[in-house]
Design brief:
Layout lengths: L4 H28 L1 H9 L8 H20 L4 H25 L16 H22 L8 H35 L12 E8 L5 E7 L2 E6 L5 E6 L6 E4 L13 E5 L2 E5 L5 E6 L4 E7 L6 E4 L4 E6 L8 E7 L3 E6 L15 E6 L4 E6 L5 E4 L5 E5 L12 E3 L5 E3 L7 E7 L2 E6 L8 H6 E8 L4 E9 L6 E6 L3 E6 L2 E7 L1 H4 L10
Antiparallel strand pairs: 1-26, 2-3, 3-4, 4-5, 6-7, 7-8, 8-9, 10-11, 11-12, 12-13, 14-15, 15-16, 16-17, 18-19, 20-21, 21-22, 22-23, 24-25, 25-26
């Protein structure tokens, strides 16, 4: 490149100054909002597990490079260092755009306002600037042999390749650690669910009874035989009254569950489950001979997976009840694992994944879930990403022989839902690099693939007024949330929908 020394030096000065301005500005922006910068890195799909040291090292390196660029004797080293950093930033964005399941943001200042494609183009321009300045910085380049020119090209190419390799290695190591030994880092993709509809139900006594043929059904604790249903758009509102005379049964806590074409009326204090068709809402069959239970979930029209206090020392135990053609009850004493007392420490939520024909039990007070088959045989045990592997419970023994918690226990998993292969968990424990303000305003839902036993992503469900999430239900197209008196519908978007096992549409 035959340029006069003055022009060549001016170009080098301008490029060096641009880099100094860029790095100093970016560093100041990061430092002024360091907590947010560190949180954004912690939620990056490439750098999650490396967020702590990267958040400190990047601003420091940018300042060092800026100093080197301001010293004429050190400028060539500074330009190679600037090229290295800019290639790494560019490779990071390229991987984010083409190989990441979601796109975060971890820039500072005005750069944060750029779109990712614009940011990629911006970085590439600065890569070209750095290469140009390096070439021009070699003042005697025209006097050197062609071999030396090749040597300079090799150095630039090697710097570029090594820079890209470092980013790829960080990405692969971060992905491996996140999947296999997650250090309690959540990933928040851009809006996996989007709030679309909201309805004031006037009362907070509703619960999710089930979903069938495009309609969500809500039961009512205050009026056990009354249900309401509506579409995902909260239209075609219907009120249902189940035809049933409960006088002969000493019910204490009746619950209605919907499964396909049937509804089930049950109360674990009474050894019978009543069934009817949702076409007429008339109880037409008694499934007698069921065990006493505190939680039960239908597997099909005549079978249920349940939990009861029938184990040793009245500990919790999981089993299966079927009525086809005669009543049969089987227990699995090894399904739940005792840590302290076998009662409070094994408390949790029982779910059934219809498409997988698997039962899932999620503990309230520890980071564990159990996957079983339709006979309650344990297939696998998995963990949620928090670090609470042991229930933090203190038991007090009363004079009458009963037991109670002496202090409130640490709730780890509060609510859950299952759809296809995905387990949705409302977590109560804040992870690393998460803003307190987000936890004050919303409820955090973690998503797991129960077949692979891997964490997939997290998202927030914001409250209504001062009320936060009470319970929720998930289909392949929508997430339904009960928040105070309100039923809120969130549409499931493609980045979450793609995590489902199949691409079949809801009926």
């Amino acid at each position: 490149m035959n340029l006069k020394p003055q022009i060549r030096n001016s170009i080098i000065e301008i490029i060096s100054l641009l880099y100094v301005l860029l790095f100093v500005y970016a560093t100041v922006a990061k430092i002024l909002d360091f907590e947010n910068f560190q949180i954004q890195l912690g939620q990056s799909p490439l750098l999650s597990v490396h967020a702590w040291w990267i958040s400190w090292s990047v601003p420091a390196i940018e300042i060092v490079i800026s100093i080197l660029l301001c010293i004429p004797k050190c400028r060539k080293i500074g330009l190679f260092a600037a090229l290295t950093m800019m290639v790494m930033f560019t490779a990071y964005i390229f991987i984010i755009l083409n190989f990441s399941s979601f796109i975060p943001c971890s820039c500072g200042g005005i750069l944060e306002k750029m779109g990712w494609n614009t940011h990629l183009a911006f970085n590439l321009i600065f890569v070209v600037f750095a290469v140009l300045a390096i070439v021009l910085q070699d003042k005697k380049i025209d006097e050197y042999t062609g071999n030396h020119k090749k040597s300079l090209k090799i150095k630039i190419a090697a710097t570029t390749v090594l820079s890209i390799a470092v980013v790829v290695i960080l990405f692969l190591s971060s992905e491996s650690i996140m999947e296999n030994e997650n250090p309690f880092l959540r990933r928040y993709p851009q809006h996996p669910v989007m709030m679309t509809y909201e309805k004031d139900l006037k009362y907070n006594s509703y619960y999710f009874a089930g979903y069938s043929k495009g309609r969500i059904y809500l039961g009512n604790y205050s009026n056990p035989l009354h249900l309401i249903s509506m579409t995902s758009e909260l239209k075609d509102y219907r009120s249902v009254k189940i035809k049933f005379d409960p006088k002969k049964n000493p019910f204490s806590f009746v619950r209605i569950l919907i499964k396909g074409d049937y509804f089930f009326l049950m109360d674990g204090t009474v050894p019978v489950i009543f069934r009817g068709a949702i076409s007429d809402w008339i109880v037409n069959r008694e499934l007698k001979g069921s065990p006493y239970f505190n939680v039960a979930v239908p597997i099909d029209s005549t079978s249920f997976v349940f939990r009861s206090s029938s184990g040793a020392n009245s500990s919790q135990i999981v089993g299966v009840f079927s009525f086809n053609p005669v009543p049969r009850v089987s227990y699995n004493e090894r399904f739940l694992t005792k840590q302290i007392d076998g009662v409070f420490d094994t408390d949790g939520m029982l779910l059934y994944a219809e498409k997988l024909n698997k039962s899932v039990y999620l503990y309230y007070y520890r980071n564990e879930f159990v996957v079983g088959d339709r006979e309650a045989k344990v297939l696998a045990r998995g963990n949620t990403i928090d670090t609470n592997s042991t229930a933090k419970i203190k038991i007090a023994h009363l004079k009458n022989g009963d037991k109670t918690m002496s202090v409130p226990a640490l709730m780890v998993n509060q609510h859950s839902a299952i759809c296809e292969n995905l387990l949705f968990v409302h977590s109560k424990v804040k992870g690393q690099y998460e803003l307190e303000k987000v936890w004050e305003q919303s409820s955090i839902i973690d998503v797991y693939d129960i077949e692979k036993r891997t964490y997939r992503m997290s998202f927030s469900v914001y409250g209504v007024g001062d009320k936060k999430l009470g319970s929720f239900y998930v289909t392949k197209t929508h997430l339904y949330a009960l928040i105070g008196n309100h039923l809120v519908v969130h549409k499931i978007r493609s980045n979450l929908k793609n995590e489902f096992r199949s691409s079949e549409k809801e009926d």
